[in-house]
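Input structure tokens:
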């Protein structure tokens, strides 16, 4: 099973970028697939290959009740005709994301937050013959490998910017950017996640040639502000491109704040990475 990951790299024509004489681009990985989109498929593609080679009959993973990873896994599993199961963090709930997972045949098992912390133990306690373990968000070396070709090598960029959650996607970007002579910049969307730097270094073989910024989380994971929504609406009007409030909205808002602060020198050529996740927009409170 394959999806086309040769997604467009598009210029962003925005007054702020033009005013500060920076060249701004976006990698449209949100266009890989409507539901197995962005970094979700990139992280899963080699996992699916490995599972097939090992004769797995069910893929078992983990996530919160609004996990784009679980939606992507459920959809991809249905396409590949392989069973899927998810341990969902927290009390039993119903929402549009989990309903999609169930529509694609995913078995859901809700677990309390204490039990959820030890995912390997959860897997082993409920393991059946043919089960294949996939860490939360697809995290792991195979996922890093899948994310190591996001940056196109046929264009010359000075910076590559990506939202950082678990750090897996960013680790792949770091590996590739170091080979291409590009400075990778990660916008951390978690509050108080200073330890993530060591996780990224471990995933990309202890390199330290990257920069993380922790001040743009907008209150923490899955938190949003009126200012963030206003920025996303303005960006959509200016470019026609939708962003989500958990990852890409915070990343792009940070990029524009950094442009205005002079962080990027004039004539910089900046590639931002759209990692998908647009289903999260359906949780926006109605006026």
């Amino acid at each position: 099973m394959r999806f086309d990951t040769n997604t467009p790299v598009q210029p962003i024509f925005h007054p702020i970028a033009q005013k500060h004489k920076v060249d701004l681009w976006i990698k449209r990985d949100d266009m890989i697939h409507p539901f197995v989109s962005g970094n979700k498929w990139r992280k899963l593609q080699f996992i699916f290959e490995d599972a097939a080679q090992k004769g797995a009959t069910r893929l078992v993973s983990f996530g919160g009740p609004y996990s784009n990873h679980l939606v992507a896994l459920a959809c991809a599993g249905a396409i590949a005709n392989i069973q899927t199961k998810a341990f969902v963090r927290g009390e039993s709930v119903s929402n549009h994301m989990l309903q999609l997972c169930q529509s694609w045949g995913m078995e859901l098992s809700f677990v309390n937050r204490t039990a959820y912390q030890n995912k390997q133990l959860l897997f082993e306690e409920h393991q059946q013959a043919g089960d294949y373990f996939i860490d939360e968000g697809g995290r792991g070396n195979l996922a890093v490998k899948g994310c190591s070709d996001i940056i196109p090598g046929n264009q010359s960029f000075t910076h590559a910017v990506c939202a950082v959650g678990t750090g897996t996607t960013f680790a792949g970007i770091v590996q590739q950017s170091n080979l291409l002579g590009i400075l990778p910049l990660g916008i951390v969307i978690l509050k108080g996640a200073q330890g993530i730097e060591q996780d990224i270094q471990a995933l990309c073989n202890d390199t330290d040639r990257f920069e993380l910024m922790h001040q743009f989380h907008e209150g923490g994971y899955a938190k949003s502000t009126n200012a963030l929504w206003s920025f996303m609406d303005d960006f959509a009007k200016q470019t026609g491109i939708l962003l989500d409030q958990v990852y890409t909205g915070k990343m792009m808002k940070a990029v524009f704040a950094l442009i205005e602060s002079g962080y990027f020198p004039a004539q910089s050529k900046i590639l931002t990475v759209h990692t998908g996740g647009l289903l999260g927009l359906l949780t926006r409170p109605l006026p």
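The mean pLDDT is 95. The longest strand covers residues 83-89.
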